[in-house]
Design a protein that fits this description.
The chain is an alpha/beta fold. The protein has 11 helices and 10 strands. Strand 9, helix 9 and strand 10 form a beta-alpha-beta unit. The longest helix has 35 residues.
Length: 280
């Protein structure tokens, strides 16, 4: 039942369940009245029975008594995200889904710190799970167990403090925060709504591209400043000379030569901008 319901979901955890169905050649059941409960889980009807799949918050939302807190805590302490499976008002099972940390994640966090960029883990997972994963990759600031609206509120709060915020996410629950951040970054394996809400999409799904993105951005801004300098330098220098302002000092130039110099300024700007093609 869980896999059948998750097959309708676009959440990364849902893919784990659907992959399991495919690998074990289990046929998915027909799901009616499917509904995504933002930040909490999913629900639908299978064989005319209400099935709920989600975290502990969805149990509270629908008044389902939870007698499995100890099991949840035990699984969470091992770094698992918790998924409850409920039929009607009865909890049928609790599943611990372990996130696989990308190999490059730790290296990326170190690189960001080297560039004096603060990193925050902003997640809907419970505190125990988030803390374990954050510790593994080197993040010390964790904001866990939050709903999509709370993710957005956190980013707004950071912006109000004068921070320039880049949000990286790939799920439906990340989309409001991606749209709110100064720069929203998603991957092409993310949900459609997450990609639509992003300013940048990493087409190769490699998180190292975030470092490259920052590098290209810095080089682009520096290049713009250089181009502005050269454009104004030629104008400020040549226009007064061509107008004869400095003639009393014995400094003059043919206007044709001055106009040629201005053309050279444009060529300088073009070739300087083309250097960005070599950024790696």
């Amino acid at each position: 039942m869980c896999g059948s319901l998750e097959a309708k979901s676009t959440h990364p955890i849902g893919k784990a369940f659907t992959d399991y169905l495919e690998e074990n050649k289990i046929e998915a059941l027909d799901v009616q009245e499917f509904k995504n409960v933002s930040g909490l889980g999913i629900m639908g009807k299978i064989n005319n029975e209400q099935i709920i799949v989600g975290n502990s918050k969805i149990l509270e939302e629908y008044g389902i008594k939870n007698e499995h807190q100890n099991t949840e805590k035990s699984l969470s302490e091992k770094g698992n995200s918790i998924v409850y499976i409920v039929k009607g008002k009865e909890i049928l099972g609790i599943v611990g889904v372990n996130d696989i940390v990308r190999r490059e994640a730790k290296e990326i966090i170190k690189e960001l710190e080297k560039n004096k960029i603060d990193t925050i883990m902003l997640t809907g997972d419970n505190k125990d799970t988030a803390t374990i994963i954050a510790r593994e990759i080197g993040i010390t600031d964790v904001v866990a167990n939050v709903l999509p609206a709370q993710k957005t509120a956190t980013i707004k709060e950071l912006k109000e403090k004068g921070k320039f915020v880049m949000m990286c996410g790939d799920g439906i629950n990340d989309s409001p925060a991606l749209a709110t951040a100064n720069i929203g970054v998603s991957v092409n394996s993310g949900t459609d709504i997450a990609m639509d809400s992003s300013d940048v999409i990493l087409t190769n799904n490699n998180l190292k591209s975030v470092i490259r993105l920052i590098s290209i951005s810095k080089r682009t801004v520096r290049n713009i400043k250089q181009n502005l300098f050269w454009a104004f330098f030629y104008n400020v220098l040549m226009i007064p000379v061509a107008m004869g302002v400095l003639k009393p000092l014995g400094i003059s130039i043919n206007p044709m030569i001055a106009s040629l110099a201005m053309v050279l300024s444009s060529i300088t700007v073009i070739f300087n901008a083309l250097r960005l093609r070599n950024v790696s």
